[in-house]
Every structure is written in structure tokens, then in C-alpha cells.
Amino acid sequence: MKSPLLAFFKFLIGVLLVSLVSSGAAHAIDGASPTPAAITSQITAFYQKFVNKEGKVDYSGIQRNPEMLQRLLENIAVFDVAKAKMPDQYAFYLNAYNVLVIGEIVAHYPLVSVQELPGFFNKTSLRVAGERLTLDQIETDKLRKIYDDPRLHFALVCGTNSCPRLSRTAYVGKDLFVQLNNQTQFALLDPAYVKVNEADKTVKLPEIFKWYETDFSSSGKTGVLYVNQFRKDDRVPTWFSVDYYPYNWSLNDQKQEVTVALEK
After folding, report:
1. Per DSSP, which regions of the chain are E strands?
2. Region 8-32 average pLDDT
3. Residue 62 CB neighbour total at 10 angstroms
4. Is the predicted pLDDT of residue 148 greater than 70, yes or no?
5. Dihedral of CA 116/103/248/136: which sign?
6. Torsions phi, psi of 138, nearest 5?
7. 31 falls in which pLDDT band (50, 70, 90)?
8. Three-class SS of residue 58?
9. Which has more pLDDT, 8 or 220?
10. Could you count the other beta carbons within 10 Å of the beta carbon of residue 173?
11. Contact criterion met (CB below 8 Å) for 248 and 195
12. Residues 114, 158: contact at Cβ < 8 Å?
């Protein structure tokens, strides 16, 4: 006959073993790299909750409820990019850039502009797919140098009002060509982004066309010629005088948008 004390100790050991195995399994799942489909689905859900149709971000809302953002940042940090197909890698770094911008703004919110954060683009290193990278390194080393695709400049959103609208849908590898075309067309048809003045026969372009002229020239077309590729029915006359309007560094913040509307 077994001793009751011995039986009790065996029961405790069994409970501890089950607990350790369960804990180890949970840790493995939590620490594992998410699939491309899982991470894009997670990003889209996050955008649907905190980004409006104008592409403005509810930074104060995210700060009050940071759980979705925190899970996203953790998944971006451990994503195994080497196992992903090239279109999924491209989509990952576009998405990572946009989410990391939001993460850094939320970490220092309230802000009026990212210019309040010295080194925001080129000094602060962030965890991305097992590396420490700045936003500039993601843009240049992981995107521009590899894909040679000017459309990415309309997909990267740096937290300012002069950036293109932030899409409420994550970029997905299998749909990326269409998504980038749509995003670029949306930006270049926006009269607040490409400012055409028929009376004065002038067009004012965002300064990215000046800053990244070599990127656009690699496609064979720059300035108005590049713009017109995405304005089939509303082309800008090529003889119009071209200038660049000053960059607006104010935050793409839903709260600021509401404040401006109330002030009017």
C-alpha cells in the first residue's frame, strides 16, 4: 500500500512537470517568428482600429490601449525575414517602417512633430527581424537599394502631414504590385499632394521628387512625367512650370486634425 505522503509528493511533481512543459510550449510559441500572413493580418486589424480614412493616426488612443501595438512590435522584432519570399520581404519592411514610426511617436507622445525627437530617422535603432536598424537604414538598405522602385516613397509614411496617406490595409507580398500602384495613384491624384494651378500654369510637387530624384530617374521618368503615368485622365501639362512646396512636418495626428477643425 502506498504512503499517502508519497502519493501527494508524486502528485506535486506531476503538476510541476505539466506546468514546466506548458510554460516551455507557450514560450516557444510566443518567441517563434510569425508567418507573413499572420503579421499582415495583425497590422491590418491595428490600422482598422487606429487609422481613419484620411490616413490620420489616433496616437492618444494607441497610447491608452497599447496592447495591439506592443504585440506588433514584438512580432516585427522576431520575424524571420530570411524564410520569407522576396515579395513578402518587401511587404514586411514597408509595413515594419510604418508601424515602427507609429511606435516611436506613441512612445514620446504628445508631440507636435517628429522633429522634436533628435535622431528620429537616423540615430534611434529599433528591433527589426533580428537586427537593430534605424528608420533610414530600413528605407535605404532594406528597400531602396534592393528593389529600385520609386513607388515605395508613396508607401512609406513618416508620421508627417506631407507624407502620403497611411493605408488602412497592410502590404501583402502576393498583392504588392497592385497595392503599390493603387497607393501611388491615390497620392498623385490628390490635389493637396500634387498642386496644379491651371490659371498660373504651374504645378507644385512634394519635395520627395527633389530629394529622391535619382530614384525616380532610374525608372526613366522624373517629375511631371512620372506623375502623369498615374494620372491617365488628368495629366499635368508638361509645359507647366514646376516647383516644390515646403515640407509640412506637423504630425499626422487625428487629435490635431480635430483641433484644427474646431479652431476653424
Report:
1. 126-128, 131-133, 195-197, 202-205, 241-244
2. 39
3. 22
4. yes
5. positive
6. -60, -50
7. low
8. coil
9. 220
10. 19
11. no
12. yes
Considering only CA atoms, which of 81, 71, 66 is closest in space to residue 128?
Answer: 81
Dmax over Cα atoms in the chain, in whole Å? Answer: 102
Sequence-separated (6 or more) residues with CB below 8 Å from residue 51: 57, 58, 166, 168
**Hunting for cell 509640412 — which residue is that?**
248
Q: By the 8 A CB rule, do 243 and 204 touch?
A: yes
Residue 43 half-sphere exposure, CB side, CA atoms within 13 Å?
Answer: 30
Residue with cell string 496616437: 59
Residue boundaries of the structural domains of the chain: 33-263
pLDDT at position 30, please?
Answer: 52
Rounded distance between C-alpha atoms, residue 131 and residue 24, angstroms: 25
Look at the block and give the residue holding cell 490616413. Answer: 55
What nine digits make up the cell of 122?
537616423
Question: Cell for 165?
Answer: 496617406
The backbone region for 14, taken as left when phi is positive above 0, alpha when psi lies in -120 to 50, beta otherwise, is: alpha
Who contacts 243 (Cβ-Cβ below 8 Å, separation ≥6)?
A: 202, 203, 204, 205
pTM attached to this predicted model = 0.85
The partner residues of 244 in beta bridges, in order of sequence, read 205
pLDDT tens digits, one per residue of 120-137: 999 999 999 999 999 999
Omega within 30 of 0 (cis) for the link into 34: no
> Please, are residues 57 and 101 in contact by the beta-carbon 8 Å criterion?
no
